[in-house]
Amino acid sequence: MFDTRELGRRPGALQKLTRSVPAPKDFGIEGVIGVSEGAPVELGLRLESVMEGVLVTGTARASAEGECVRCLEPLRLEVAADFQEMFTYPDADDRGRSRTAEPVDDAEDEDTLFLEDGLFDLESVLRDAVVLALPMQPVCRETCAGLCSACGIRLDENPDHHHDAVDIRWAALQGLAGTVKDGEKDNMGGAEAGVDEKQEK
């Protein structure tokens, strides 16, 4: 929780904060990449008092871990996510006036974040910002060649690796082709022997 009470309700008042907070659980893209629970998330925040509440602008920096989608090796990358969010006074409408006597629009309030006793919680804002900043298909490096689709060997370590392409529709004939070739050699051997015998006569 962050405290805005030092700002008072004085539009134009500013406060800058730097803080390190532990990452919450499931802070990333499940099964792909994310910031480990409890890992430090460095925050740089600017709090600005406005008529209807406090405008929070900031940057979150953290180390994310996952695995390369091409070669499946573990990877770590630094992520920086920018965000801006308005936290509204519970008793103020968009013009900064009291609205305690006015009807409340439930649909509008669903998207509105409120200050509670001058405090606000950034977890949901940080989660959205960091997830959007993470790559959906992380790679250890842009030139990663990945794995061989036939045998799974790492192609970066074996750049000359390849398999002879065989059309499975012709696979049954390959054995037959080998047999015919062997038979032809035998026949040719017999013919050559016959020719030699005639020449001897």
Helix and strand layout, with pairings?
Blueprint (H helix, E strand, L loop, with lengths): L1 E2 L10 E9 L4 E3 L3 E3 L4 E11 L2 E15 L6 E15 L17 H5 L2 E2 L4 E2 L2 H11 L37 H30 L1
Walkthrough of the structure:
The radius of gyration is 35 Å and the shape is rod-shaped. A hairpin with a 6-residue loop joins β6 (53-67) and β7. The protein is an alpha+beta fold and 201 residues long. Strands 2, 3, 4, 5, 6, 7 and 8 form a seven-stranded mixed β-sheet that branches. Strands 1-9 form a two-stranded antiparallel sheet. It has three helices and nine strands; from the N terminus they run βββββββαββαα. Residues 94-108 have low confidence and may be disordered.
What would you call the structural class? alpha+beta
Portion of residues in helices?
A: 10-25%
Distance between the termini: 110 Å
Would you report the number of β strands? 9
* Low-confidence runs: 94-108
Which outline best applies? rod-shaped
| Rounded radius of gyration (Å) | 35 Å
Largest sheet: 7 strands, mixed
Q: Count helical runs.
A: 3
| Beta-strand share of residues | 25-35%
Query: Which whole number gives the mean pLDDT?
Result: 80
- The ordered string of helix (H) and strand (E) elements is EEEEEEEHEEHH
